[in-house]
C-alpha cells in the first residue's frame, strides 16, 4: 500500500515537473520568437511624425536601419523634419496627409507601397490636445479629438491590414495616453477620445493576433516633447497654459521624450499588449484599477484648483506665454520644442 502511494506521488511529481518544463519551454520559445523582430530593413509609417514624439521615434528607427515614412498636416514642419532626417542618413518619405480623412489615408498608404512596398509597422501617433474646463469645450472640440484619436487610427489600420494579413505578419502601435486610463480634469475631449482609442486597440489586439499581427497600446504620462506650444487652450488660456506646461517641464511629473520613445519601440519589438510609459502613468493606472473612488476624489480635488474661466475662444500655447512660462521652470520643455521641431509651426 505504501509502495503504491509512493508510486502515485512520484507520478504526480513527474507529471507536474514535465508540465512546468513544457510551459517554461513554450514561454521561452515565444519570447525568443518575439525577440527576433528587428526594425532593420522594415518599412515603418508614423502618423504625426513631423514633430514631437513622432519625430523622436523616426530618428531612432532610422538609426536601427528602418525605412521611415512620416506624415503631417503642416507642410512646412513636415519639410523641416524630412530635411533633418535625411541629413542623418537613411531612407525617408514625408507625405502631407490629414489622417482624419480616409481618402487621404488611402493615398498615403498607396504612396508608401509604391515607394517601398507594404508597411511592416504602423505607429498611430498623430494627436491634438485641447486644455480647458469642460464648459468651454464645444461639440466641435469633441469631434476633433475623436476624429484624430479614434477614426484616424482606424483609417490607417484598415489601410495597412490587407497586406499585413496577406504576409501573416505586422506590428501596429497605438499611442494612447494615461488620459485613456484616468480622465484628467480640463482635458475631457482628449481623455474621452483616448479612452476610445484604448478600447479600439485592445479589441484589435485580440482579433488580429491570430493573423500574426501584434497590436501594442501605449499609455504614456506627460512627455517632454515640446508639444504645449502647439496645444490648444481655452478659458483663462494663460493660466491653463501655465499649469500644463509646468507639469510638462518638471522631471518628477514628466518623462524625457527620447527615453519614452526607446521604451515604446522596445514594446513594439517585443509585441507587448500594453506599455505604460513613465512612473506617473503606472501609478495612475494602478490607482484607477484598485481604488477608483480615491482616484475620483483626487481628480475632483485637482479640478477644483484649476482655472475656472469658461470662455470658448481657443488659442495656441505660443499665444499664451507669460513671464512664468518663459522662466527657468519651463526650460526643459523649451529645449524639447527646439529639438523636436515644435517651434515655428503655422497657426491655424
Automatic annotation (TrEMBL):
Tell me which residues make up the Ketoreductase domain.
Answer: 42-226
The cross-references to SUPFAM superfamilies, in alphabetical order and at most eight, read: NAD(P)-binding Rossmann-fold domains
Q: Is Oxidoreductase there in the keyword field?
A: yes
State a single Gene Ontology molecular function. Answer: oxidoreductase activity
Keyword Oxidoreductase carried by entry: yes
InterPro entries (alphabetical): KR_dom, NAD(P)-bd_dom_sf, Sc_DH/Rdtase_CS, SDR_fam
Q: Which PROSITE patterns match?
A: ADH_SHORT
**Keywords recorded for this protein, A-Z:** Oxidoreductase
The Swiss-Prot or TrEMBL record describes its family as follows:
Belongs to the short-chain dehydrogenases/reductases (SDR) family.
Q: What is the protein's name according to its record?
A: SDR family oxidoreductase
The top of its lineage is: Bacteria, Pseudomonadati, Myxococcota, Myxococcia, Myxococcales
Amino acid at each position: 500500500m505504501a509502495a503504491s502511494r509512493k508510486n502515485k506521488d512520484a507520478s504526480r511529481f513527474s507529471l507536474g515537473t514535465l508540465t512546468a518544463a513544457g510551459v517554461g519551454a513554450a514561454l521561452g520559445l515565444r519570447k525568443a520568437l518575439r525577440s527576433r523582430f528587428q526594425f532593420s530593413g522594415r518599412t515603418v509609417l508614423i502618423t504625426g511624425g513631423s514633430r514631437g514624439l513622432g519625430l523622436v521615434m523616426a530618428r531612432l528607427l532610422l538609426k536601427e536601419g528602418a525605412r521611415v515614412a512620416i506624415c503631417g498636416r503642416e507642410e512646412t514642419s513636415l519639410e523641416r523634419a524630412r530635411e533633418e532626417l535625411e541629413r542623418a542618413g537613411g531612407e525617408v518619405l514625408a507625405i502631407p496627409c490629414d489622417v482624419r480623412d480616409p481618402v487621404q489615408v488611402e493615398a498615403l498608404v498607396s504612396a508608401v507601397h509604391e515607394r517601398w512596398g507594404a508597411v511592416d509597422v504602423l505607429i498611430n501617433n498623430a494627436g491634438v490636445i485641447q486644455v480647458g474646463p469642460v464648459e468651454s469645450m464645444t461639440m466641435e472640440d469633441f469631434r476633433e479629438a475623436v476624429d484624430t484619436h479614434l477614426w484616424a487610427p482606424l483609417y490607417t489600420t484598415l489601410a495597412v491590414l490587407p497586406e499585413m494579413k496577406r504576409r501573416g505578419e505586422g506590428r501596429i502601435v497605438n499611442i494612447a495616453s494615461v488620459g485613456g486610463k484616468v480622465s484628467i480634469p480640463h482635458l475631457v475631449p482628449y481623455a474621452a477620445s483616448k479612452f476610445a482609442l484604448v478600447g479600439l486597440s485592445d479589441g484589435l489586439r485580440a482579433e488580429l493576433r491570430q493573423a500574426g499581427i501584434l497590436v501594442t497600446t501605449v499609455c504614456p504620462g506627460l512627455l517632454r516633447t515640446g508639444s504645449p506650444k502647439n496645444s490648444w487652450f481655452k478659458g483663462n488660456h494663460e493660466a491653463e497654459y501655465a499649469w500644463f506646461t509646468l507639469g510638462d517641464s518638471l522631471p518628477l511629473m514628466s518623462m524625457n521624450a527620447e527615453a519614452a520613445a526607446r521604451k515604446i519601440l522596445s514594446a513594439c519589438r517585443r509585441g507587448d499588449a500594453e506599455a505604460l510609459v513613465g512612473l506617473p502613468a503606472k501609478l495612475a493606472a494602478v490607482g484607477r484599477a484598485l481604488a477608483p473612488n480615491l482616484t475620483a476624489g483626487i481628480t475632483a480635488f485637482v479640478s477644483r484648483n484649476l482655472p475656472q474661466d469658461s470662455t470658448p475662444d481657443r488659442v495656441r500655447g505660443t499665444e499664451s506665454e507669460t513671464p512664468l512660462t518663459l522662466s527657468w521652470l519651463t526650460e526643459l520643455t523649451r529645449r524639447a520644442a527646439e529639438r523636436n521641431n515644435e517651434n515655428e509651426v503655422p497657426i491655424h
